[in-house]
Amino acid sequence: MSEISQSPRRILLIANPVAGGDALAKIHQAQECLAARGDRVELRLTGARGDAARFAREARNGAVDLLVAAGGDGTLNEVINGLAPSVLPLAFIPLGTTNVFALEAGIPFDIPGACRVALDGAATPVSLGLAGETRFLLMAGAGFDAEVVRRVDLRLKRRLGKLAYVVSALRVFFGPPFPAIEVECADGSLLSGHTVVIGNGRLYGGRFSLTPGASLTDDVFEVCLLRKPGRWSLLHALLRMVLRLPLEPAGARLFKARELTVRGEGVAVQIDGDDHGELPMSFRVVPGELVLVMPGGAGKP
Q: What letters, b where the CB count within 10 A reaches 16 and e where it falls short, cover 148-166?
């Protein structure tokens, strides 16, 4: 800590002022916490989609010692896509609806606790995923979960938070059946199903897990493919996920892969909980693309 006080760090705080309730007050609290030790903190607020990526891209010029993203998983994804590949340490302060990365890494949800991790945590090299040419940190999905994300009413999300996803999930569940998808692995083998989740981390949609063997620090995905069609098979898988039971009895197949191609006509894709177009799409893991500041020992299963 003496080194920090002798040589103040230059910290850039990229923050989303509409992420979660009372975000702006929390952002200013975070700015004060980060500056309390004498470090120089510059705050840049996002105002439109793409701002976070642009601010992060500009931070790569060497004028910043630590980059801090404050917002939800979508804000973090934008920052990562502007920053990576980079060795500039990136920390996170959770303000959003779900904040899966904070849960994955063990980052506190209170502002002072998250700021302590940002200032004192371990700078940890991690792998990122590529969905086409776009990076993701946590997971990508195609099928049911991606269709739920695509149909979420953003106005309802601002009012109800996570409950907006429940409303969307019910609409999708009782809607038309999903087209089949085909997963092609690197060795040319083909698998079929109706929903696939490609995990770069363990957690999914909060504290649930579809890919319990995945790790941000590994150089391989864990993939969960739901193979049995129909509403009741999907409901069986969802119930087992909620109850934290193994998914194989519900017709799921879990396997490791460094790259794969997924095809399916008109099937939605999501990355890190945001809509990302439709299949077909290729996915691959890229090791060492980013340095994340996490509590010691985070990122391992």
A: bbbbbeeeebeeeeeebbe
Paired tokens of 16: 């989303």
For the segment 180-194, what is each residue's pLDDT rounded down to a tens digit?
A: 999 999 899 999 999
Look up residue 220 and give its amino acid.
Answer: V
Question: Any residues with CB less than 8 A from the CB of 166 and at least 6 apart, and which?
Answer: none
Contacts of 280 (CB under 8 A, 6+ apart): 261, 262, 263, 264
Helix (H/G/I), strand (E/B), else coil: 114: helix
Q: How far apart are CA 20 and CA 276, in angstroms?
A: 22
Residue 197 CB partners (closer than 8 Å, separation 6+)? 139, 140, 141, 145, 204, 210, 211, 223, 224
Instruction: Report the distance separating Cα 186 and Cα 105, nearest Å.
Output: 29
Mind listing the pLDDT tens digit for each residue in 36-76? 999 999 999 999 999 999 999 999 887 899 999 999 998 99
Describe the chain by its helix, strand, coil percentages, rounded to 5.
30, 35, 35
Q: Is 273 exposed, middle or buried (0-12, 13-18, 19+ CB in 10 A)?
A: buried
Among left, alpha and beta (phi > 0; psi -120 to 50; other), residue 231 is: alpha
CA dist 260 and 136 (Å) reads: 15
CA pair distance 49, 124, nearest whole angstrom: 27
Measured distance CA(73)–CA(67) in Å, rounded: 16
* Collapsed DSSP state (helix, strand, coil) of residue 62: coil
Residue 230 DSSP code: S
Distance of CA 221 to the CA centre of its chain: 14
